[in-house]
């Protein structure tokens, strides 16, 4: 069925409103129930009377003794004690730590065998030279070495040698930012 060229179904005629609802005229104003207004006014007046009646009750009930009810104290019998001196600074570490030096023993790193990074191994020398050119565009120098194994002649693209693995990792991250993936770091001797 072709939905794009389909015609709309014909509209049905609107039904006429029937009954008393259509005959009632619209009201001009809204009627207010005067009994609710009177009840609200009585409640407001009652609340005001209640609040005014309890506002003066604290003075009459004697909730707080006034200064006139308290007998005066004998000032000749009261001896003023001297205020004790402020205690000294209990913390001494602040002065001690200012002149303290911390000694840390850092073990020397063991330098293992030199590291080489292989970024590819190809059957065709032209593929290896293409990868070498991409690596050269990142600013690193690589070599293409041929190796003969049990499964034939291979052309390896290698970088290095590096003294530490950290140096090799730094170059590998630089290559990954340049979209050269798959480089692996090995402990190889030349």
From TrEMBL:
SUPFAM superfamilies: Sporulation related repeat. Residues 1-25 are annotated as: Disordered. Keywords: Cell cycle, Cell division, Membrane, Transmembrane, Transmembrane helix. PROSITE patterns: SPOR (PS51724). GO terms for biological process: cell division. The chain crosses the membrane at residues 32-51. InterPro entries: Cell_div_SPOR-domain, SPOR-like_dom, SPOR-like_sf. Pfam families: SPOR. Residues 109-188 form the SPOR domain. One of its GO terms (molecular function) is peptidoglycan binding. This is Cell division protein FtsN. It comes from Pseudidiomarina salinarum.
